[in-house]
């Protein structure tokens, strides 16, 4: 029991007689009790009441929010999202200095969020990109993503990106980048057809019948003067079911195309683009117009093989029937003389004229026996007089050697897997790649293929090398060791990262990988290597990897790349352009050139990547030449 006399605590006892329900009694009784309290007791009570009042006012909004939060559905970023009542982690308030990275690409662990304005140098950036990525992701979650685009206006021009050009830069309005990522494949196929139509529109309006469109200046460039883009694009139009465009182009081939011209053409380029394009169009359509034209150009290219060594010259005059090496050397490029075989062999099969095949087979037989290889890897040059490799000791899977390796495998496939020398050379070369050229980058351990120069390794990799994942996967599909497929997957990731780690999401022509521990990021790009020519190799490999694995990530990667081509290389008046700087999304600096392989290869491989029909150019029936023209695999009787 508490003693009522004690004054150090409050004790209110509401007892007494009378009508305690009456208001007056209660008022009087309370007042009396209050008066009976000590000053300390009264102050304590007043203090407690005041405290409760202050707390009540302070917590009122949170309480009401709590109850609202249980039911409110918030519209966010076009979707309806039920917001969690209590976020797991409260976001830091954004400071004025914090900038959200404008692009979101790739697995967060490997994205490069170094969205530095004015990317003058690649080399030293203090932040850790992975931490940056996480931070940027977190920031992205805080506010709706505003995506910018840069559809290039034709008068925004320019090769080189000079200061004057920058001055003249037209500020283009922001364009919403559409996100079709969760829509059916149909939309992606349509997006490829749209891209083709847009490219074709520019070609038709400003370069019809010429070699290449110059979309910024709304003009054209000539290389051989043979309608190169039109011929390279024929089978793509057929495959994409763009029949109206195809018929127009076919009319041009039948009425305008003549190879009886006094022009020098490059043997390799005209074989893979023109001869290859005509042969595959013949196979797809059955129209002998294309076979006749193929035979005409094939025959006109044959003088290239009239050399002391039978290793062909690089250039042929298709009107005069003469051939010669480049002015400054009697060497030819190894990739060029060993990547014309699929086409000439097929021409022999179709025409029953063995001369074409005999010429190119002889080249392969000679190269097979040559000294100067290292573990199956070939140098980049071969002399047309001596028939020997020159510039010994330098090995790459990039420019000047790349398609030698590709055609070893593909000739073996084309010929029904009977030519064992080709297979042996291919397998040996792959061992050479693993032993001499394959390394891992730092910090993310990306597998890459570097180069070797007189025993010195260089971590340089051309975008051209990105044909290799697709070729490795193709070999594994045709029964070669399963570890080829594992390597294909690793290299595919690397080639994708060459896009994803750039500010435009487009790969540069050449990258250098970091190998030393403590590197900040995997990929560096030298100033001179920042261009993108709309090349196909990565998309090509994504197509093979998707066909064989059905892993949807390859399609999603391809979709990202297509969107970035649309964002940074599409010219408003028609066509797409190569760009000078993949590291500057504000001003990628158009080069004013649409290479024929963008239509012949890049868009075709996009379409095949997104197509669900495995019978659309089945890889058990067709082998693609190095310009993406499908040629039949011969039956075992042939
Ligand atoms: C194309 O002409 C061919 O793919 C060739 O094998 C390499 N160069 C271009 C595309 O990059």
Automatic annotation (TrEMBL):
The keyword Ribonucleoprotein does not apply. Its cofactor is Ca(2+). The keyword Transmembrane helix applies. SUPFAM superfamilies: Seven-hairpin glycosidases (SSF48225). Disulfide bonds join 466-495. Residues 97-106 have a biased composition (Basic residues). It comes from the Eukaryota. It catalyses: N(4)-(alpha-D-Man-(1->2)-alpha-D-Man-(1->2)-alpha-D-Man-(1->3)-[alpha-D-Man-(1->3)-[alpha-D-Man-(1->2)-alpha-D-Man-(1->6)]-alpha-D-Man-(1->6)]-beta-D-Man-(1->4)-beta-D-GlcNAc-(1->4)-beta-D-GlcNAc)-L-asparaginyl-[protein] (N-glucan mannose isomer 8A1,2,3B1,3) + 3 H2O = N(4)-(alpha-D-Man-(1->3)-[alpha-D-Man-(1->3)-[alpha-D-Man-(1->6)]-alpha-D-Man-(1->6)]-beta-D-Man-(1->4)-beta-D-GlcNAc-(1->4)-beta-D-GlcNAc)-L-asparaginyl-[protein] (N-glucan mannose isomer 5A1,2) + 3 beta-D-mannose; N(4)-(alpha-D-Man-(1->2)-alpha-D-Man-(1->2)-alpha-D-Man-(1->3)-[alpha-D-Man-(1->2)-alpha-D-Man-(1->3)-[alpha-D-Man-(1->2)-alpha-D-Man-(1->6)]-alpha-D-Man-(1->6)]-beta-D-Man-(1->4)-beta-D-GlcNAc-(1->4)-beta-D-GlcNAc)-L-asparaginyl-[protein] (N-glucan mannose isomer 9A1,2,3B1,2,3) + 4 H2O = N(4)-(alpha-D-Man-(1->3)-[alpha-D-Man-(1->3)-[alpha-D-Man-(1->6)]-alpha-D-Man-(1->6)]-beta-D-Man-(1->4)-beta-D-GlcNAc-(1->4)-beta-D-GlcNAc)-L-asparaginyl-[protein] (N-glucan mannose isomer 5A1,2) + 4 beta-D-mannose. Its main location: endoplasmic reticulum. Belongs to the glycosyl hydrolase 47 family. This is alpha-1,2-Mannosidase. It comes from Salmo trutta (Brown trout). The lineage of its organism: Eukaryota, Metazoa, Chordata, Craniata, Vertebrata. The gene is MAN1B1.
């Amino acid at each position: 029991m508490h003693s009522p006399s004690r004054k150090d605590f409050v004790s209110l006892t509401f007892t007494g007689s009378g009508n305690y329900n009456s208001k007056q009694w209660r008022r009087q009784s309370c007042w009396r009790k209050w008066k009976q309290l000590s000053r300390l007791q009264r102050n304590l009570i007043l203090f407690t009441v005041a405290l409760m009042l202050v707390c009540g006012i302070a917590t009122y909004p949170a309480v009401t929010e709590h109850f609202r939060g249980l039911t409110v559905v918030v519209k966010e970023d076009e979707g309806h999202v039920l917001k969690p009542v209590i976020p797991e982690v409260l976001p830091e308030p954004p400071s004025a200095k914090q900038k959200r990275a404008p692009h979101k690409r790739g697995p967060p662990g490997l994205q490069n969020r170094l969205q530095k304005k004015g990317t003058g140098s690649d080399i030293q950036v203090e932040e850790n990109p992975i931490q940056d990525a996480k931070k940027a992701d977190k920031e992205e979650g805080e506010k709706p993503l505003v995506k910018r685009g840069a559809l290039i206006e034709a008068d925004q021009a320019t090769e080189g990106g000079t200061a004057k050009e920058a001055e003249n830069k037209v500020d283009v309005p922001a364009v919403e980048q559409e996100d079709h990522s969760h829509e059916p494949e149909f939309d992606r196929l349509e997006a490829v057809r749209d891209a083709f139509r847009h490219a074709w529109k520019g070609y038709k309006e400003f370069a019809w019948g010429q070699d290449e469109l110059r979309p910024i200046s709304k003009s054209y460039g000539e290389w051989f003067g043979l309608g190169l883009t039109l011929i390279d694009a024929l089978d793509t139009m057929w495959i994409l079911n763009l029949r109206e465009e195809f018929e127009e182009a076919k009319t041009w081939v039948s009425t305008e195309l003549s190879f009886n011209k006094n022009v020098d053409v490059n043997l390799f380029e005209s074989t893979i683009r023109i001869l290859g394009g005509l042969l595959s169009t013949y196979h797809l359509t059955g129209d002998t117009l294309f076979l006749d034209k193929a035979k005409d150009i094939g025959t006109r290219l044959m003088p290239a093989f009239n050399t002391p060594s039978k290793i062909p010259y690089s250039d042929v005059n298709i009107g005069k029937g003469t051939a010669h090496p480049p002015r400054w050397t009697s060497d030819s490029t190894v990739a060029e003389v060993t990547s014309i075989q699929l086409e000439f062999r097929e021409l022999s099969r179709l025409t029953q004229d063995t001369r074409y095949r005999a010429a190119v087979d002889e080249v392969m037989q000679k190269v097979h026996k040559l000294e100067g290889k290292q573990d199956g890897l070939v140098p980049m040059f071969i002399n047309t007089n001596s028939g020997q490799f020159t510039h010994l000791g330098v090995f790459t899977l990039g420019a000047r050697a790349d398609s030698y390796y590709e055609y070893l495998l593909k000739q073996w496939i084309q010929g029904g897997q009977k030519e064992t020398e080709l297979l042996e050379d291919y397998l040996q070369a792959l061992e050479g790649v693993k032993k001499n050229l394959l390394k891992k980058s730092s910090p993310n351990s990306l597998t890459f293929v570097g180069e070797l120069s007189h025993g010195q390794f260089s971590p340089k990799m051309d975008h051209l090398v990105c044909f290799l994942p697709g070729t490795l996967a193709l070999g594994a599909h045709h029964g070669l060791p399963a570890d080829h497929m594992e390597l294909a997957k690793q290299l595919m990731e690397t080639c994708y990262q060459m896009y994803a780690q750039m500010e435009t999401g487009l790969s540069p022509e050449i990258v250098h990988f970091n190998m030393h521990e403590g590197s900040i990021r995997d990929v560096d790009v030298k100033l001179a290597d920042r261009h993108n020519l709309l090349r196909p190799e990565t998309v090509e490999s994504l197509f093979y990897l998707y066909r064989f694995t059905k892993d949807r990530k390859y399609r999603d990667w391809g979709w990202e790349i297509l969107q970035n081509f649309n964002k940074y290389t599409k010219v408003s008046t028609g066509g797409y352009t190569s760009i000078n700087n993949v590291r500057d999304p504000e001003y990628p600096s158009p080069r004013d050139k649409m290479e024929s392989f963008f239509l012949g290869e890049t868009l075709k491989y996009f379409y095949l990547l997104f197509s669900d029909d495995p019978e659309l150019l089945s890889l058990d029936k067709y082998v693609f030449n190095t310009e993406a023209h499908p040629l039949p695999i011969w039956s075992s009787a042939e």
